[in-house]
Structures are given as C-alpha cells and as structure tokens.
Amino acid sequence: MEHTSDEPMAGLQVVTAGDGADEIESQAIRLGLIGELDLATVGILDRRIDQLLQDGCKVEIDLSGLTFIDSTGLGLLIRRARGDGQADGAVTIRRSELANQVRRLIDMTGTNQTLWP
Amino acid sequence: MSVTNLLRETCPATPEAVRPLRHAVERYARAAGIEGEQLAAVLTAFAEAVANVVTHAYPDQPGDIHVSAAVGGNELRIKVADDGIGCNASSARPGLGLGLGLMADSCSSLELQERGRGGTLVTMKFRIDSA
C-alpha cells in the first residue's frame, strides 16, 4: 500500500490506497483517515477529494483510523456523501469500526442514513 | 467542594489552536478519571465551543480564546470565553448549526453569557460518574 500522507504534522493523515490490492474497483481510490478531522484539518481532506475527483476517480473514505471528529469534519463528510456539487456516487463512506467519539457524534446527529444510504 | 489542578489557557483564536487546546482538556479530564463515553462527551462539547469562537467571535480582527477547567467534587467545569462580538450577533459564517445542540446534549449543564466587556462566556458542566 502506498502511503501519500498529506501534511502529516497537521493532525490528520490522508492515506491513499494505491497499489491495486486496496482499490475497491476500477478508478476508485480509498482514502484512509488517520488522526483528527476538525476545523483545522478539514481542508486537507477536502482538497484531496477535489484532486481525485478532478482526476476522474471515485473516492471511498475509510474512517476506521479516525480518533476524533467535530461538526465541521462531519459536515464535510455529509456534503460529500450527499453528493453536493459532484457526480452521484463519486464519494462514499466505507462502513467500518469507529472510534468511540466518532461513532457517538454520528449517532447524536442522526446522520447514519446520510453517510451510509 | 475541593477544586484540583485548575487548567487555564489563553491563545490566539485560530484553527491551529483547536487541537492543542483539545488535547490539554483531554489530559486534564483523563487525570480527573474521565474516560470512555464521558470523555467523548467532554471532547465533543469542548470542540464545538472552541470552533464557535474561532469561526464566529472575531469576524474582522484577530482575538484570543480563553479556556479554563476545574474539577470539584464529582463535576468537571469547563469555561470557554472570548472578547469578540458576542453570542447575540449574527454571523456571516453560519455553519451547519449543529454546534450548540451537540454541546447541550453532551454536558449536564450549559450556559452562554454575554461578557460585560464584550465577548461570550460558555460554561459547561459534566458529571463525573464513577466507573
């Protein structure tokens, strides 16, 4: 698996699965999030998704390495999962085990159906 | 009521300040014996309070955020304050509107006050349940 960590010191690493073994389908790239997705780091993920979509890829986001998320980070995931301003199905969220705080925020906001329609 | 190990921090209200402040509160809460779901609730509420300051308090100029935490008896009390435009002002950056609800749902008591000399003071209290 090729790791292309973007701004690793910023609290969030966006790890790209790039060797084929972790590709979910042709032209689909899995982005593993490691660390904290919040007001300070949300732009890292947003820019990475934009870059991949502009390259014609689909994106699957894996939250299993995420240790913290705030409403700003959740807002980005919701907008992307809903497909705001992008092609239908271009970005999906992988079902996975979630850290306590991440699962709690998603449950509290009732956004399960939006993230995993 | 005994108060132990008061945490007090002031720093510029920027996105870069969010994580160090949250980590400081996390260390403080863990030292007070808060873990698991309770810790998740504390960090969720605190993050929203800090994000509100960074996003809304200073639309036209830089400013500071003031954080304090104290444990007394079976309660953790966290205060997040700023010197900005106040909580009754409208914001040009409204966000998702989830923050206040998440704060209220995560703590046992939530108060928002206009500060006398300008700005907002948010006081959150969390019951510390023994494991």
What does this 3D model show about the protein?
The complex is a heterodimer of chains A (117) and B (131). Chain A is of the alpha/beta class. Helices cover 33% and strands 26% of the residues of chain A. Chain A contains four helices and four strands; from the N terminus they run E-E-H-E-H-E-H-H. Chain A has helices at residues 42-54, 71-82, 100-109, 112-115; strands at 12-17, 28-37, 58-69, 91-93. A four-stranded mixed sheet of chain A has the order 1-2-3-4. Chain A is globular. The model of chain A is unreliable at 1-9 (pLDDT under 50). Chain B is an alpha+beta fold and 131 residues long. Helix content of chain B is 36%, strand content 31%. Chain B has three helices and five strands. Chain B has helices at residues 15-31, 36-57, 99-106; strands at residues 3-12, 64-72, 75-82, 109-114, 120-127. The two termini of chain B are 21 Å apart. The chains are: A alpha/beta (117), B alpha+beta (131). Chain A binds chain B through residues 11, 36, 38-41, 68, 70-72, 74-75, 78, 100-101, 104-105, 108-109, and chain B through 15-16, 18-19, 22, 36-37, 39-41, 43-44, 47-48, 51, 54-55, 95-96, 98-99, 102, 105-106.
Q: In summary, what is this structure?
A:
Chain A has 117 residues and is α/β, with parallel strands linked by helices. Helices cover 33% and strands 26% of the residues of chain A.
Please write out the topology.
The complex is a heterodimer of chains A (about 120) and B (about 130).
Chain A: E1 12-17, E2 28-37, H1 42-54, E3 58-69, H2 71-82, E4 91-93, H3 100-109, H4 112-115
Parallel strand pairs in A: 2-3, 3-4
Antiparallel strand pairs in A: 1-2
Chain B: E1 3-12, H1 15-31, H2 36-57, E2 64-72, E3 75-82, H3 99-106, E4 109-114, E5 120-127
Helix pairs in contact in B: 1-2, 2-3
